[in-house]
Structures are given as C-alpha cells and as structure tokens.
C-alpha cells in the first residue's frame, strides 16, 4: 500500500485568542493540522523546528510588524502564506502581496472564505520540489540567465546570484517549461480559477520582471499578450 499522507500542517500566527480559536476550529473541521503562535518570536522558533505547509499570518502582532515578519519569512522559508488582517487599507494588502504573500483575507471573515483561500494556496504548494533524475534537467539557461529550480537560485548574465521566493520560482518554472507559448493566468497559477479581480499573478509577474528586465515597464522577456496571458520570449536549454 502507498504511504499515508499526513494532513497539511498550518501555522496560525494570531495574538487574539478568540480569533485564533475560530481559525483553529475551522481548520480542524476541514481536516487540517494546526499550531497557534501568539508572537513573531514564537513563530520563528516553531519554523526552526518544523516547516509547515502554510502560515496564516496576522499583520497586527504585538512584538513585530507583520510586514517585517513576511519579509523575513519569504527570505528563508518556502511555505504558503495567507495574510489575515483587520487593516482595510488597500495599500497594506497590495504591499503584502508584493512582499510575497499568496493571498489575504480581511477580518471579519466567513470560515468558508478562509478555507477556500487555504485550499487555493495549498494547491500551489504541492510539497518539496523533486529534482529530475536526469542531472541534465537541473539548470535552465535562457537569455543569458541561469535558473536552478532545486535551490530557487537565479544567476544573472553578469554572474550575480539571487534567491527567488517560492512564488516567483514556481512562476518562472512554469514559464521556462513552456517558452514562447501564451499561458493564461489560470495556467500560471496551476490551473486555479481566477476572477477578474484577482491580480496575484500580475503582481508575481511584476516582481519577476523587476529581476529580469532592463526596463520592466517595456518588458521584452516576459511579454503581456493582452486578453490572453503572458509569454516567455526566449529559447530555453537545460544543462
């Protein structure tokens, strides 16, 4: 028999215990494991011991601003990340997405909405990336750039190395797998249905362009095909 797969582990970072209980009860009801952390310090301690599949992060923590927590997480950890916030300012939500969050939900929220967003994010994080058995398939070269999906390392034509966030690396991997093909926003998000108001993929493309393009406003490598999607205009080889 195949090995039994444990339910996804979700870290809930929320200092208001009443809200933490609502989130925890909702996750348990739908079959997810979870742990609750009341501070950023407790979260980082937990991350050093065990990696979750998803972190649900409240921006209003008592010991550290949520945006700072988000930045530090995205530099070191590759799990999904859902912002839960009472901040109604659109700027905060957009900044969170720009810094690497996968989605957000605003308090007060319906439990069904929370679960829908949790499921959507988890579909984009199928677990650790398994490198191809063939070593010739481990590094992609395109337009002078090199990308190693096993480590999310991007090397510029001048030799400068940078580590992409998981969201950026997944997007680039899909583009590299289908060069010179128009990919819809749904395809770039792993088949997830997106509404006309869902701009998360556009924000990810924008972040990638800032890394890859000399002039992100007039992109030549990741092109917008209006009304259709995006296209990587490059020849890709694997070495």
TrEMBL record:
DNA-binding region: 137-234
Keywords: DNA-binding, Phosphoprotein, Transcription, Transcription regulation, Two-component regulatory system
GO molecular function: phosphorelay response regulator activity; transcription cis-regulatory region binding
4-aspartylphosphate modified-residue sites: 58
GO biological process, alphabetically ordered: regulation of DNA-templated transcription
Domain OmpR/PhoB-type: 137-234
Residue spans crossing the bilayer: none
Classification via SMART domains: REC, Trans_reg_C
PROSITE patterns for the chain: OMPR_PHOB (PS51755), RESPONSE_REGULATORY (PS50110)
Limits of the Response regulatory domain: 9-122
Domain of life: Bacteria
GO cellular component: a single term: cytosol
Pfam families (UniProt xref): Response_reg (PF00072), Trans_reg_C (PF00486)
Name of the protein in its database record: DNA-binding response regulator
Protein source organism: Zoogloea ramigera
């Amino acid at each position: 028999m195949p090995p039994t797969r444990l339910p996804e582990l979700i870290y809930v970072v929320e200092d208001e215990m009443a809200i933490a209980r609502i989130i925890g009860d909702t996750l348990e009801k739908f079959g997810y494991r979870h742990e609750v952390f009341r501070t950023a310090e407790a979260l980082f301690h937990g991350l050093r011991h065990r990696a979750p599949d998803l972190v649900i992060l409240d921006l209003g923590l008592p010991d550290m601003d949520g945006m700072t927590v988000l930045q530090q997480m995205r530099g070191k950890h590759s799990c999904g990340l859902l912002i839960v916030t009472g901040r109604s300012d659109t700027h905060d939500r957009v900044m969170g997405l720009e810094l690497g969050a996968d989605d957000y939900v605003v308090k007060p929220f319906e439990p069904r909405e929370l679960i829908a967003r949790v499921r959507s994010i988890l579909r984009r994080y199928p677990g650790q990336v398994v490198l191809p058995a063939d070593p010739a398939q481990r590094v992609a070269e395109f337009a002078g750039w090199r990308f190693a999906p096993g480590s999310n390392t991007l090397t510029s034509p001048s030799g400068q190395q940078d580590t992409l966030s998981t969201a950026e690396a997944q997007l680039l991997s899909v583009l590299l797998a289908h060069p010179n093909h128009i990919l819809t926003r749904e395809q770039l998000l792993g088949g997830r249905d997106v509404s006309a108001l869902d701009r998360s993929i556009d924000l990810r493309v924008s972040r990638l362009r800032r890394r890859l393009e000399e002039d992100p406003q007039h992109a030549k490598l990741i092109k917008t095909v209006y009304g259709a999607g995006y296209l990587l205009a490059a020849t890709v080889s694997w070495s």
